[in-house]
Amino acid sequence: MTATGFSTLVEQARGIAELAGRRAGKAEAARTPDADVIAALVAAGAARHFVPASLGGSGGTFAELKQAAVVIGAECPATAWCAVVAGLMTRAANHLPPAGQRQLWAGGPDVLIAGGVTPRGTATAVAGGWLLSGAWPAVSSSERADWILLVAAVRGEGGPGQRVCLVPRASVLVERTWDDVGMQATGSHTVVAEQVFVPDPMTFPAGLLTETDAPRPGPDGRPVPLPAVNTFLFCLPMLGAAHGALRYWRRLTGAKLRGRADVYDPVVAHLADVFARSSGEIDAAELLLDRVARVVDTAPAVTRSDVARHQRDCALAAELLVRAVDRLMRASGTAGHSTGSVLQRLWRDLHTASSHATLQFGTAAAGYARAELIGAG
């Protein structure tokens, strides 16, 4: 239990995982998160995890979110993705002015926020607020959200710059465009706004999300800039998928090894190599991610150097996880590649998650070198 008396997301993660695993096929076919699974996530505290305690939040940590997301992701990475995105968007919404925060959480902390932080539309200053227009693709959970956070380029007298706007789900349209081979159950469709009025208290400058020199305190009172944690959160469903893939692979492989105890048997030797290498890479990735969680949860300040190292570590962890699960898939035989196999679903979801722009190692490596070599000089 948390200090506020809520049963934690960690405590309920196993039950959510089992439900999400059973509903995964249905959710994939519908190309949207299962309604009962989302309700279970919200009831367990996924939406309130990073809401300020003064507004009923549960005072959650990044390490706790990691623990829950990995458990859920082992059965359904798409559901884990929805959970971490909810946490990320909620933490971003903490940058609203006090009046906006009170409006957003007026009915309680269990408000599911979806979002698109890439500036795709425009925000035009008008009396008392902004007019928001544009189309934002790949907004996960968009059909199930209560509110949606959107970043837009400022146009007219309010510019230059970018503006973050929080709008009720009912104020926008959702075009069902999500057709990726993986993460189908995230429902990452396109959100369309057409001259939607957004009051001033429900907006803030987008620069507050990326500030690394003097970031504002978050709901836990700690200044953790978004670039220090977004890649970390995107890795968590992948780590869960890898754990789940290893578990399911072991079940498939057990039948092959039954009665073959000879260590010199080439089949045994091959499968032993697959198991040892893949499990080791998964462990290595988790150690990298655990360090990120420890820093953002406990360090007195998160520096630019920390941000660069986190992004490097997360991109490297993503590569390790893809390599591990690819190896498991190659050694799974036709049973693992069956369209009804859980293993192939986890593999598809992991590959889609790994394609996220923030998890590409070349970009992360350049940022790390710039911070540590050029900056140090």
UniProtKB/TrEMBL annotation:
Coiled coil stretches, renumbered: none
SUPFAM superfamilies in UniProt: Acyl-CoA dehydrogenase C-terminal domain-like (SSF47203), Acyl-CoA dehydrogenase NM domain-like (SSF56645)
Matches recorded under Pfam families: Acyl-CoA_dh_2
Protein's name according to its UniProt entry: Hydrolase
Gene3D superfamilies: Acyl-CoA dehydrogenase/oxidase, N-terminal domain, Butyryl-CoA Dehydrogenase, subunit A, domain 2, Butyryl-CoA Dehydrogenase, subunit A, domain 3
Annotated TM spans: none
Record keyword Lipoprotein present: no
Domain of life: Bacteria
Domain Acyl-CoA dehydrogenase C-terminal: 233-360
An annotated Gene Ontology molecular function: hydrolase activity
The entry's keywords: Hydrolase, Oxidoreductase
